[in-house]
Amino acid sequence: MDCIAQPDGRLLPCMGGSPFNMARAAALQGAKVAYLNPLSSDLFGQGLAQLMQKDGVQMPGGTSRLPTSLAVVQVTKGQPSYSFYREGIADRDYSEDGVLALLRQQKTPGILHTGSLLLIPPEHSKVVAILKSARNLGWTISVDINLRPKVAPDLAEYVKALHEVIPLTDWLKASDEDLETMGLKGVAIGESARLVHELRELRELHAGVAPNALSRVALTFGDEGAYLDIEGQTHSLPVPNISVADTVGAGDTFWGSALADWAMRPNVALERVAMTLDHAMKAAAINCTRQGCQPPTRAEVLAF
Q1: Is 213 inside a domain boundary?
Q2: What would the pLDDT profile of 185-200 be if each residue is shown by its tens digit?
Q3: What is the CATH number of the domain that holds 228?
Q4: Residue 280 sits in which domain range?
């Protein structure tokens, strides 16, 4: 739950959280989506479940008696900063075997997405084990790096964990802040091709990685725009001209919209690089006109 600080000191609860936001964004674009982590049985968890159900997201992960995790969000000039409360919480109340059992129930492997706070050590060890097994089951792996360095007790270990996750990834999203925190130099939208090359080189440090790893990479650069590379076919776009309320959930909405486009049109991704990027950026822009993460429907994006 995102608790957004108000000018008078109150905290306004807004339903959110990176994979939660992304699941909603993808479902609102028409994709079939399931959220695999358990939700709390507390009042916040019930509200999260009702909203996902309204948006068409399935919830096979069930419920947990542990409380909902909280993020306190301070928005300054439209840019959010976060403090997290994530010990003994529902969305970490999962097991490797439990998640893999849910994946095996699907007749056809799909896209398995993760990222953000689940990549912080030692939690990332569970995630890495799941990703390895999911790849063997035929699932396509999506990761939004979405680094939260203030939450990690050891930033160096956090970045090291990414070096375990990225080689297992097929489709990757990273922001300019993510890239800088990882230690990449010269981060700018004009350097996107080089930055993508450096990210792809990370997998070569690890043996046994499928040759198609990181076939799709999206880089976002705040108000400078975004860049998409699909198997060497690239496109970049500036940010649409909007009046920004805040940017909470913008990256989640962007990536959820991109994944939905690929899930619903699996055989034409190379022909749709520019269209996919345009659609995802418009979805994110609409979200930025609203307080908190409120992804738009497909009809709203098409009418934008």
Answers
A1: yes
A2: 999 999 999 999 999 9
A3: 3.40.1190.20
A4: 17-36+95-303
Per the structure, the count of domains in the chain is 1
Which residue spans within the chain are E strands per DSSP? 2-5, 11-14, 33-34, 39-40, 57-58, 63-64, 70-76, 79-85, 111-115, 140-144, 171-175, 216-220, 226-230, 233-237
C-beta neighbour count of 166 within 10 angstroms: 23
Is 257:216 a contact under the CB 8 Å cutoff?
no
CA-nearest of 163, 201, 159 to 177 is 159
Torsion of CA 175, 180, 183, 189, to 10 degrees: 70
| Distance in angstroms (rounded) separating the CA atoms of residues 138 and 97 | 16
- The SS3 assignment for 257 reads helix
Q: Which two tokens stand for residue 128?
A: 């890495």
pLDDT tens digits for 227-285? Answer: 999 999 999 999 999 999 889 899 999 999 999 999 999 999 999 999 999 999 999 99
Residue 206 has pLDDT above 70, yes or no: no
**62 falls within a domain:** no
